[in-house]
Structure formats: structure tokens, C-alpha cells
Amino acid sequence: MDYKAQVTNSILSVLNDELSSAEVYEKLEQPKTQAMGDLAFPAFVLAKVLHKSPNQIAEDLVSKIDQSSYEKVEAKGAYINFFLDKGQFSNEVLTDVIEQGAAYGQNDHGKGGNVPIDMSSPNIAKPISMGHLRSTVIGNSIAKILVKNGYHPIKDNHLGDWGTQFGKLIVAYKKWGNEEDVKKDPINNLVKYYVKFHQEDKEHPELDDEARETFKKLEEGNEEEVFLWKWFRKVSLESFNKIYEKLGVTFDTYNGEAFYNDKMDEGIQILKDKGLLVESRGAQVVNLDKYNLNPALILKSDGATLYITRDIATAIFRDRTYKPAMNLYVVGSEQTYYFQQLKAVLLEMGLPSAENLHHIPFGLITVNGKKLSTRSGRIILLDKVLDDAIDLAKKQIEDKNPDLPNKEEVANEVGVGAIIFGDLKNERTNNIDFVLEDQLKFEGETGPYVQYSHARAESILRKANDIDFHGANKSLGDPAAWETVTSLKEFPDIVKSACKDFEPSEIAKYSLRLAKAFNKYYAHSKILVEDDQLGARLSLVKAVSIVLKESLNLLGVKAPDAM
What family is this (predicted)? Predict the structure, then answer.
């Protein structure tokens, strides 16, 4: 039931057309504390019309409102406070959650529309560091939230497998590398060569010219350069996929920049045909004055392509292949201006999906306040962080529950889940300073806290006798349970809002609120008491378990049944 609509109708029934239904509905507020009711109407909006004080209006209206469907309705100052019937409300909410199960909160807003999500996108021949975590887990969570809202996401790991950096890497390998070392430890050695290149080119800038020439050979299909590039790509993907498997992240396509290398001519030709491509100092640009943006450089003076040249080809391919409802790019905030330019160019080209291109920016992840950088050699490997988190989770589980039968599996779920949740609980545009130990705490605003709350609910259910949840009385009148019940009611709206805002933190923060409300209830109430409310209390526990598990699922985090 839409309780705001119920309250709206109650107010309208005692008015004489002073306000419309939409106006009353819009004015309803959520009181700051439970003591002030569940919904409140500010009577001062009627003061000018009724020529009375807001306090008097509130008292007059309360005396006329039919209160039979509420616990009570009272005037407090200028507000009319509505207290919902707790038994009726809890019965409806708990019935909805238990009958719908994991589908609770599902909607069909997206109507099956395709949504390509450009995400993760590590560079070949470089390790996946903590710097790649954000795009990967934010993109993965957004994909899950989109499914919950009726869309069909297409997760595209748009690999950084092309560009001048490969000219640098090939030059570095030829000068300082050898095949045997790369075979033994491919990623670490390749990145060592790349870092050395940037150390050497400070004193030998001619290396940059050599690298540009080498990349030009790669673009032209020179046999030696292509062989090395393919080798670097193969060993990199093997390394990446081990980490994605740990994170529980999968992709629908790995079409990297190289895939579009032979598809750029079409975009360039469209720009020419529309008279959009103009010469500037020998280079080819698109003027974007009408968007208050600098010209977009499409081709360098030597004819070499850039990121944007390949991204135009990518957008054309996705538009033609998927006919997307939206096109999402989960890329760091530092690229915001670039994506404004890309969208503007695509709009000028008349690409059908350009209007619904969205850059999903996110802040930096730092360690001890320092930005991570492959070029400077300051890298923290994601694989090592995940292993450390799993080890720390093992120690904590050993201390708390040494007899747990599947400790290894749970430690993996808790350790990895802690890293993912620790990222996603932050609003994505915020910067994060990463501290591993803080993420693994079983108390506070952490993934393990939410997981433990779910496991606690499952433990209670295991201790209870078999119960027919579908037939159980779910009219729970206990005021101590009210915060938990109202939190459960919120979930479908949170699912919609997280999708609209592309903001997984809304789900994470909600799961923390629900877990806290449930733990508070558990601490002050005896659940397994044999009385006429036992079925209702256990229904609440079941509903909490369902919604916490689904909340974690939308974040890409597992929910163990025991910890």
C-alpha cells in the first residue's frame, strides 16, 4: 500500500478543495524521530487560504480526520502527525518481502533496454592495482542494480590494449627485457620495463620519439611489433581473469581499443561528410564552441589516432549492435571534461544514442594519502590486497567461530566482500583513503558487519522450529520492531533511487541502516518466545535475512549463512 496516498486522502477528506491531491502528497514529510509519527503534514501551507494560525488549522483538521485506520493522528504545533497502524503495516510489508523473496524491490522500469557499461578497462601489460578496483566494482554493482530495475546491462571490459604506451613498452622490452624473465613473471617484469622507460626518458627524451615510431609500426601491422603486442595481451588477460574470479565479476565482452583499430575510418568519414572536421595547426579537430568546450582533437598532425578517435568508433559499434537505452562509462572523475567532449562530438554526428551517454565518474583511491601510479612505480596490487583481506578474515573467524565448518569459503566471502563494500559504501565521487584493517572490522560501517547481521538472522531461523511463513500471522505490533519494519518498506524505493543516480552507495548505506535497526531490535527483544507473536517476529527475521542478502547481492558481495 502507498501510505502517503492513504494520508493524502485522509487530509483531502477534511479540506474544501484548498489543495489538490498532488499538492498534499508533495507536502508530506518524514518526521525526524519516531516519536513524531510516520508521516507529517505541515498545516502552515493552508494559513493564507484559511486565515488562521497553522497551529489552529492543525488542531481543527485532526478533530475531523477519521483515525480508525491509524494508530493515532495528533496535532503538534503546525504539524499533523500520522502514526500508522503497526499491525496492518507490518503484515503488508512482511508478506510482500516473504512472498516475493529475492525479487522484492524488482521493477520493470527499464523495459529490457540494453545498457552497455564501459568498466574496469585495465591496461594490458600492467597489473590490476587498487586503482582499478573502483571502476570494476562500481560498474559491476550498477549492472546488478540495472537488472533489478528491468534493464539488460552489457558489461564491456574495454581493455586498454592500444595506444602509444605500447610503443613505449615494446621499446623498453627490446632495450632491457628478455623472453625468459617475461615467461617466469610476465606482469611484474613488463611493468618494470615500463617504469624504467619513464625513468630513462627524463634524461633521454629521444626515447619518446622512438616509442611513437614503434607504435606507428604496430598500427601498420609490422610483424615483430604485432607479435610482441599479442603476447603481452595474452599473458595480461590470464592474470586479470584470476583477479576477476576472486572478485566474482564477469564480463559480456572484452572488446578493447585494438578491436576498433580498423573501425575508425567510418567515424572520421561521417565527421568529414558533415563538415565537422576542420584543420588546426595541421591536426584535425571538431569545433565545440556551441557547447562551451575546447575543440576535440580527432587526428594528430601526423595522422595518428587518439583515444577519442577509437571511442567514436566504439560508440558507433555499440549504437548499431545494441541500440542502447543508455550508454554508461564508469571512468574516473579526472576524465569528466573528456567525456563532455566525446558526447558533444557524438551529438554533432547525430548518433542516436548520444543523448543518453552518461559518464559515471568516481573519485581517487589513495593509500596513506598518496595517489597510485604505474608510471612512478607506486602500485598496490589488487590481488595482494584481496589475499591479505582473506587472511585477515580467516584470523577473525578463527577467533570468533573456530568450529565453523566451511571457514575457507566464508573467509573468502568476508575478505573479498569487505574490500568491495568498503569501496561502495562511499559516494562514488568521493576520494577514498584505503586502510585494510578498517574494512575488515565486524563492527561499524563495514561489509562484515552487514554479513554478520544476515548470518545472525539465519542463525535465529535455524534455532526456530519449522514455521509456515506464508501462513504465519505477520501483524507485528511491537514498537521495538518498528524501525526495522519501516526500513524493509524502504527497499524498493532505494532500488529505484540507486538506479536513477547510478549510485551503489545508496544500497550500501541502506543495508547498514537495516542491519543496525535489526541488531537493535535483537538486543532488546526475545524473539524465540512461544506466544501468539512468534510467527510475526520470525517473519520479521526472515524478511531481514532476505533483504540484507539481496542488498549485498546488488553490491556484488556474498552473504554467508554462518560466520
Answer: Belongs to the class-I aminoacyl-tRNA synthetase family.
Encoded amino acid at 181, one letter: D
Q: Which amino acid is at 232?
A: F
* Grid cell of 75 as nine digits: 496535532
Rounded distance between C-alpha atoms, residue 312 and residue 323, angstroms: 15
Percent helix, strand and coil across the chain, each to the nearest 5: 60, 10, 30
> Distance of alpha carbon 260 from its chain centroid, rounded?
27
Contact 287, 274 (CB under 8 A): no
Residues 6 or more apart whose CB falls under 8 angstroms from that of 177 comprise 189, 190, 193
Among 416, 543, 435, which residue's Cα sits nearest to residue 481? 543
Q: How far apart are the first and last CA of the chain?
A: 36
Question: Burial level of 551, CB count in 10 A (0-12/13-18/19+)?
Answer: buried
- For residues 536, 537, 539, 543, the Cα torsion angle rounded to the nearest 10 degrees is 140
Superfamily of domain 3-84: Arginyl tRNA synthetase N-terminal domain (3.30.1360.70)
The Cα–Cα gap between 351 and 214 comes to 34
Give the tens place of pLDDT for each residue, 112-169: 999 999 999 998 888 888 889 999 999 999 999 999 999 999 999 999 998 888 999 9
Which tens digit of pLDDT belongs to each residue from 24-76?
999 999 999 888 999 999 999 999 999 999 999 999 999 999 999 999 999 99
Contact 75, 36 (CB under 8 A): no
Using 50, 70 and 90 to split pLDDT, how confident is the model at 374? Answer: low
Q: Are 18 and 46 in contact (CB under 8 A)?
A: yes
Helix 206-219 vs helix 223-247: crossing angle, to nearest 10: 90
* Per-residue DSSP letter, 531: S
pLDDT per residue as tens digits for the range 498-532: 999 999 999 999 999 999 999 999 999 999 999 99
How distant, in Å, are the alpha carbons of 171, 368, 393, 462, 483 from that of 386?
Answer: 33, 18, 10, 31, 35
List alpha helices for 350-481, DSSP H.
382-400, 407-424, 436-439, 447-463
Residues 6+ apart with CB under 8 A from 148: 105, 106, 107, 495, 499, 554
Per-residue confidence at 224, pLDDT binned at 50, 70, 90?
A: very high
What are the distances in angstroms from CA 284 to CA 84, 176, 195?
65, 36, 32
Alpha-carbon gap, residue 325 to 142, rounded angstroms: 15
Break the chain into its structural domains and give their ranges: 3-84, 163-232
Non-local (6+) Cβ contacts of 81 within 8 A are 31, 36, 37, 39, 40, 73, 74, 75
> How many CB atoms are closer than 10 A to CB 223?
8
Beta strand residue intervals within 233-362, DSSP E: 277-280, 283-286, 296-299, 327-330, 357-360
